[in-house]
Specification:
Length: 298
């Protein structure tokens, strides 16, 4: 067996070296051939494609957080390489959604041992960007933008921008075209969901399943501020939905249109402002190494 580890050394501020040292020992002990590719932020896309072509692994392990998972998945599009996830980021939302063991070594053992591969969906945004988890326009995208510009990290920094955003909280008009119908309403956030929860544990979509060949658009029309504050600063259960007013539309293709350009974030990365956002489902685009503990598989 040959395993390629795709590692983001700085994701989430988590030191990957202790894991890599133990993973190396495990692979050496069991005679598993392996190679480690570390992202640098320079030509990573081109370089990892070269490694894949030259090394031709049997399995690929994504080592990092949600951003690393997305990077690895994009690299593996239109290939037959199966991907497993080793959660080592600040937010491991996608790993949680896919019932990956949160202990990195246990996750590695599952990747090595499992022969179960299932299709994981991806979404194509405006024919140029991809998301596997959650994207949005509105309050959360604005918070993410401010947070990314701050050299400080952690919950205290996030809380600062969260509170600042609440001071100017105003709804905006959006038109959703999906399933042959059109909805125009005022919202605080329009979310694009291929899953149920943000990495922080905040739920948006109780019916989401990243392996069911459809996604959900969640239009949040009304927000209960006390529950929002609780939601933004801690992980909690799905009772949060009892205090919100929202529309959830399941579809395979959709279009969001705004009166003025609005900021879009995808999987925690700020993209840019758009007047129109189109979303297309790419069913089963990624071959996910998983097991029968994955409750998304029906």
């Amino acid at each position: 067996m040959k395993i390629l580890f795709i590692v983001n050394p700085i994701s989430g501020g988590v030191d990957k070296e202790p894991f890599l040292k133990e993973a190396t020992s495990i692979c050496d002990f069991y005679g598993i051939n392996f190679k480690i590719f570390k992202t640098t932020g320079k030509n990573d896309e081109q370089e990892v494609l070269k490694v894949l072509e030259n090394y031709n692994p049997d399995k690929v392990a994504s080592v990092g957080g949600d951003g690393t998972t997305l990077f690895t998945a994009i690299a593996l599009l239109n290939t037959n390489y199966p991907m497993g996830i080793i959660p080592l980021g600040s937010a491991n939302g996608m790993a949680t959604e896919l019932f990956v063991k949160l202990d990195p070594i246990e996750a590695l053992k599952d990747i090595i041992m499992s022969h179960m591969v299932a299709g994981l969906d991806m979404l194509l945004i405006n024919d140029e960007h991809y998301t596997m988890h959650i994207g949005d326009v509105g309050i959360n995208a604005n918070i993410v933008e401010a947070y990314e510009k701050d050299p400080n990290r952690g919950m205290a920094t996030y809380a600062k921008y969260f509170i600042e955003e609440l001071k100017d909280l105003k709804p905006f008009k959006v038109t959703l075209n999906a399933n042959g119908e059109s909805i125009t309403t005022n919202v605080f956030m329009s979310a694009i969901c291929n899953a149920r929860k943000y990495g922080t544990g905040v739920p948006l979509n109780v019916v989401g399943n990243p392996m069911d060949e459809k996604f959900e658009i969640v239009l949040i029309e009304q927000i209960d501020l006390p529950s929002l504050i609780k939601a933004g600063l801690s992980s909690f259960d799905e009772k949060y939905f009892d205090n919100q007013k929202s529309k959830v539309i399941a579809t395979k293709e959709a279009e969001l249109i705004f009166e003025e350009p609005r900021l879009l974030q995808l999987d925690g990365e700020v993209i840019k402002k758009y007047h129109k956002v189109s979303i297309k489902m790419l069913p089963g685009a990624i071959k996910l190494i998983t097991n029968k503990g994955n409750k998304n598989i029906k």
